[in-house]
Amino acid sequence: MSVAAGTLVVHEHTALPSLGGRMTVTRKPRTALRAGVVVAALAAGVLAAPTAALAVEPGHTQGAGEVMRSKNAVLKLQDDGNLVLEHVSGGVLWASGTYGNPGATLAFQQDGNLVVYKKDGGEGKGGAVWSTGTWGNPGSRLDLQSDGNLVLYRQDGSPAWNTATWMTGTTLYAGWQLGAGNWTWADNAILAMEQTGKLTIRDREVPGIRFDTNTWGPGAYARLQADGNFVIYKKDGGEGKGGALWSTGTWNQPGARLVFERNGDLVLYKKEVEEVLWRSGTGR
Question: How many CB atoms sit inside 10 A of residue 241's CB?
Fold first, then answer.
């Protein structure tokens, strides 16, 4: 990794940081959360201890290659100029969309703005193709947290921007959804709503895909509807608006719940009973 200035440092936190304040990417309503999920993940080794968030300080500049890595995610600038955040299992959680710019560089500027510049561009020279829009925040830091969320913090510790790629709970109820880049875990598998618009189940320890909806639509999200149908919608779609890319076909089942079981099987259960309405068949 070529670094013109700045260093990689480890900052100590006493808890997983709260993501209050202004963000350019916001949490969709009622994402899948459950009490104790972080504690359980720590016990299972999915998350690193919350005292280890890897951070890049202002002044860091580099070309293509790995930028930073945490327990569950890796940030890299690809040869084509796209800045990509991947789960370590292989799924793409977030991307800047700046492909088609070979020779691009990534700069975390002293003013707190994270910028992708095309070849021969740079601070003071122009050529920016993407940025977090967080200028005016000197003394900021960029953290890749162990839950997979990339967060740009101001000097006072408040978040200025994030990728919204955090880990969620393992159960969805009616009206709950997995936003683009959200993911969860089983003992031996990872379920992710990937940035490209497909829902995947991948092996945790070795490369391998168990389930793939083969859908495409950057920013798409998955939602368990009130009628019991689990649907992937394109970014601007939704119930009553259309834009469905895939579904389990389980409508007319109000009260159904979706569970990512510990064995890696994704199962949709009928209301208040263990009757299976649909399953991915990926349990091992």
Answer: 10
Sign of the C-alpha dihedral computed for residues 158, 142, 130 and 88 taken in this order: negative
For each of the domains in the chain, give its residue range(s) and CATH number, in order of start.
8-25+47-162 (2.90.10.10), 171-279 (2.90.10.10)
> How high is the pLDDT of residue 25?
31
Give the pLDDT confidence score for residue 44 in this predicted structure. Answer: 54
Yes or no: say if 279 and 267 are a contact pair by the CB < 8 Å rule.
yes
Half-sphere exposure of 65 (CA within 13 A, CB side): 6
pTM: 0.83
Run means of pLDDT, 10 residues per run, the chain, 284 residues: 28 32 35 49 53 71 95 97 97 97 98 97 96 97 96 97 97 97 97 98 93 98 98 96 98 97 98 95 97
Q: 252 burial class (0-12, 13-18, 19+ CB within 10 angstroms)?
A: exposed
The full DSSP string for 132-199 is ----S-TT-EEEE-TTS-EEEE-TTS-EEEE----B--SEE-TT-EE-TT-EEE-SSEEEEE-TTS-E
What is residue 94's three-state secondary structure?
strand
Which residue blocks in the chain are alpha helix, DSSP H?
A: 37-44
The pLDDT, as a whole number, for residue 37 is: 53
Residues 6+ apart with CB under 8 A from 161: 23, 24, 25, 114, 132, 133, 134, 151, 152
Q: Are 190 and 89 in contact (CB under 8 A)?
A: yes
pLDDT of residue 125: 95
Q: Centre a 10 Å sphere on the Cβ of residue 125 and count the other Cβ atoms it contains.
A: 9
Query: Residue 34's pLDDT is what?
Result: 42
